[in-house]
């Protein structure tokens, strides 16, 4: 018989797990990892067909994508991948970053999916599903840390220097500033470890004596604070 067990701690863990997974996924796909120095397009088409100087803007560069403003585009900034193939990513360090981040995000998404069903299933192969998910989140957190540590090592690549100036070097961003995606990835990594630790509390909450008493009373829906 399936017992639906809902507690504040288990629901909070589920919610935080989903937030961590989506935060890391959105950050990875974003182009706002580095914000380049202000620049002006060479020319843009004026209202009467003549070319005029464009307004200054700051291009952004992600792990595999970028946002730039082209003079001949009236719609504004063009965003998209600059790397069509994996080998075209700006540097070997960013390729390694992509692998580690993708592995971590894959684990986080798997945990987020499983966490939705923990209300009904609390064990898998006689192992606590919360403990298994907590372990996976800890491993994912390590992958994310490795990816974020390697990411600044790629700042010396030719691609980054186009956006950040010739002073850009490994672990030195030159004229660039960090975009929101980098900080989101860092926040998601911290939240991942919080979830890994908090999974133990979710396990305790769903296996408490009060829960067992309500199961013995024949209740199929158990809601506890």
Chart the SSEs and their pairings:
Layout: E1 4-7, H1 8-29, E2 34-35, E3 44-45, E4 51-52, E5 60-61, E6 65-69, E7 77-81, H2 92-115, E8 123-124, E9 127-128, H3 129-150, H4 158-164, E10 177-178, H5 180-206, H6 209-216, E11 221-224
Parallel strand pairs: 1-11
Antiparallel strand pairs: 2-5, 2-10, 3-4, 5-6, 6-7, 8-9
Helix pairs in contact: 1-2, 1-5, 2-3, 3-5
Membrane topology: Multi-pass membrane protein
Subcellular location: Membrane
GO cellular component, one term: membrane
Labels describing this entry:
alpha+beta, Butyryl-CoA Dehydrogenase, subunit A, domain 3, two-stranded parallel sheet, 49% helix, elongated
Count of the separate structural domains: 1
CATH topology: Butyryl-CoA Dehydrogenase, subunit A, domain 3
Order of helices and strands: EHEEEEEEHEEHHEHHE
3D shape:
elongated
Name of the CATH architecture: Up-down Bundle
Overall pLDDT score: 85
- Number of helices, counting only DSSP H or I runs of 4 residues or more: 6
Biggest beta-sheet profile: 5 strands, antiparallel
Give the class from helix and strand content and strand pairing: alpha+beta
- DSSP helix fraction: 40-55%
Q: Could you tell me the radius of gyration in angstroms?
A: 23 Å
Name the beta content range. Answer: 5-15%
**Strands ordered across the widest β-sheet:** 7-6-5-2-10
CATH class: Mainly Alpha
How far do the termini sit from each other?
23 Å
Poorly predicted regions: 43-52
Task: Report the count of strand segments.
Answer: 11
């Amino acid at each position: 018989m399936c017992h639906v067990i809902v507690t504040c701690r288990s629901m909070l863990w589920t919610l935080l797990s989903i937030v961590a997974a989506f935060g890391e996924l959105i950050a990875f796909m974003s182009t706002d990892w580095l914000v380049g120095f202000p620049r002006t397009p060479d020319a843009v088409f004026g209202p009467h067909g003549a070319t005029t100087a464009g307004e200054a803007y700051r291009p952004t560069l992600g792990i595999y994508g970028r946002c730039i403003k082209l003079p001949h585009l009236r719609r504004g900034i063009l965003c998209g991948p600059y790397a069509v193939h994996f080998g075209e990513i700006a540097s070997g360090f960013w390729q390694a970053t992509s692998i580690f981040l993708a592995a971590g995000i894959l684990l986080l998404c798997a945990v987020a999916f499983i966490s939705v069903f923990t209300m009904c299933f609390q064990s898998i192969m006689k192992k606590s599903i919360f403990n298994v998910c907590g372990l996976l989140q800890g491993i994912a957190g390590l992958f994310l840390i490795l990816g974020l540590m390697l990411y600044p090592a790629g700042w010396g690549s030719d691609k980054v220097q186009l956006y950040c100036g010739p002073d850009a070097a490994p672990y030195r961003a030159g004229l660039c500033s960090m975009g929101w995606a980098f900080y989101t990835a860092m926040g998601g990594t911290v939240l991942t470890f919080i979830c890994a630790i908090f999974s133990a509390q979710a396990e305790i909450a769903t296996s408490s004596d009060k829960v067992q008493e309500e199961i013995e009373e024949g209740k199929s829906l158990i809601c506890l604070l």
